[in-house]
Amino acid sequence: MEPRQNVYLPFLQPLLDAPGSRYRLKDWPDSHIWQPKRYIEEGLLHDAEGHGGPPPTTEEPNNSILIIANLASQRQNIGGGVRGARSAHLKAIDFSHAVRHRSGFQSYGPTRMLMWLSDEDKRSLLPRTVGYRGKLSVYMEANFNLEEIVGFPHAFDAKMRREDALDIESSKRVAKQMQEKDIKIPLHRQATPGDRRSDLSEISRYWHRELQELEEGFQTGKFEQYVEGPAAESIEGHMHEAKSGKAKSRSLVTLTPEYKRMMTLRSVAKGQKVTIDRINIVLKKREEIDKMDLELHRENIKVSEQEKIIKGLDSKIQDFNDELETLTAKQKRTLFFLDDDRRAFAMDPPLLTWDRRKAEPLSTKDDEFYAPGDIALLDFQPKTIDDFPMSSEQSIYFDLMSTFLFGPRGQATLKHLKTIAPGAFEALVPQVPAIRDPRKGGRYDIDSVRVRVVTPEMIHGLAVAWDKWVFKPPIEDALTQFSDNFEERITSKKGAIARF
Length: 500
Prior knowledge:
alpha+beta; four-stranded mixed sheet; disordered C terminus
């Protein structure tokens, strides 16, 4: 099914012309491609009741159907010259809803999809740091075992990257699993050492690679510290001119532009290291609190011991919060980012699907694709066991909570629930034990549970609690917060959730 046959026909024709080929080329619009009834009408697929084929099951993957989608660099057209949402993201959401409701192709049983998409679009679906974790990745975590089959090993243009120590530990775990299962990657598909350079601090930044290249260039003699002659103005001459306002030509030795840049970046790196060292001192106190929190959930713990631990927790949490107030706003953001990434990785299993991968992705080059670009291949394997059983209404509320917490107006912590409806935070949170259970990603002090590390289990708990809450407002009233002209565009509750 290829709507753009004029572009891809030269590549498809050999498949059609091959001896004994069973390929069929259909010039269908996108709206038909994803509707199983069109395939049934064309005799390409039996109906969901099993007529013309084996009856579907929901316990085992349906290996008689495989969907392969090319959504690289595609966007939904909104009109008026406005760039719409990424088609890959929209299709992933549709696919996750189909999995949950056993609709569309999923009515035939858990049906797998391979999706080609841009490496940039991949970040929101399969994030490698909590910084990119949002509603999309929560849907993926809840409904799929998602694997990256092909991809670029490291994106230096990413605005957010986690500590190298976590990436190294994650790779070690995967390497051990691959060795145990005898999974091997062909040499020409392995990431080369040049794909990743060691960073100069715990938090990676785009200029780290530039600094390392400058350091290497200076050591190997690619550029010198000084330039002889009047070709460039000396530092002393520049400073004298700035003070006196008079130009003064001098032929003294001057620093080369490369050396100046290297010294500037060295200074920035030194300042960053001081900041990270300060933050790590504060995070040590956070780690002590987390250890006490785990002790609070020890099996067969006595009530008297719990009361003693709680008293100590309250005291240490207060000291930690006082320490936070001594940090700048930027330092706090960095601390929260480090803390959340470490917590997500420490969960069992890790929160991020990326850290649960079975093998490293195959390495590629941009010129291997038509058109050339940084393209990734994701494997969407629907979960055969429903980890979060929900009624139809609760499924809608799961979407509501995901949209509300991770939406454009979402705040840093779960206290944002206070604005969804009066009394929502106080009514819902106590009904979700996982939020305060460190064994499930929660914490004793709810104020430190930030939205980007809220697990699908917690969101499921909030959805069920909302369903049972007798004072909950109509869902339409809750959703009006997301749009000023909500009622003009949405005609039903399910339509509202489907849009989000």
